[in-house]
# Entry
Amino acid sequence: MNDDEKTTEAPPPQPVDRREFLSTTWKVLGVALIVEAGWTSYDILNPKPAVGFGGTVDAGPVEDFLTEGTVKYFLDGRFYVTQFQGGLRALFQKCPHLGCKVGDCNTAGESAGFRCPCHGSQYNVIGEYLSGPAPRGMDRFPISIENGHVMVDTSSVVEGPARGVLTGPTEPPTSCGSGA
Ligand code: FES
# Structure
C-alpha cells in the first residue's frame, strides 16, 4: 500500500450512540403525534359543508319565486319552496304523521296545497294542517337570502304549526297527482 492510498481511505464509521438515537427517535415520533392530533382536531372542528339534504341547499334566485302561489320541489333537499303573499317557506316533504312523502297538488300550474298519499292528510300551500291524521302542519327548514339566492338549511328541522293554526288558505287542495 502506498502513501496515496492511505490518504484517500475513508474514516471508520462512528458507532451510533444508543442514547442519542433513542432521544432523536422519540422527538420525531412526538412531532408526528402532535401534527396528527392537530390535523384530526382541525378536521373534526371544520367539517366540510354537506351538499344536498343535511346541508344548505341553493333553491335558486329569488326571482324564481315572485309569482304568487309558486311551488317548486327540490329533490336533493327533500323540500318544497312555496311563495304565499310574498313570504317564502321551505316545507319538508316528510309527512309529520308517519313519514310518507307529501305530494304537491296542482291546479292550473299553481299548487293549491299538499296531500299525503298514505293516509290522506291535507295541508294548504304554506303547509298548515287542514285535515287527516297528521298531528300538525308540515315541518319546515330555515331560509336565508344570500347573494340574491334562496338558501335552505336542511340541517335543522323546524316543527310545523299546530293543528288549528291557519293563516293561509282554508280550503283543501282541489286536485292531486301521485306526488309520491
Ligand atoms: S303518513 Fe301522511 S297521512 Fe299518514
Summary: The chain has a mean pLDDT of 84. The chain has two domains: 17-47, 56-153. The domain at 56-153 is CATH 2.102.10.10 (Rieske Iron-sulfur Protein). Residues 18-45 form the longest helix (28 residues).
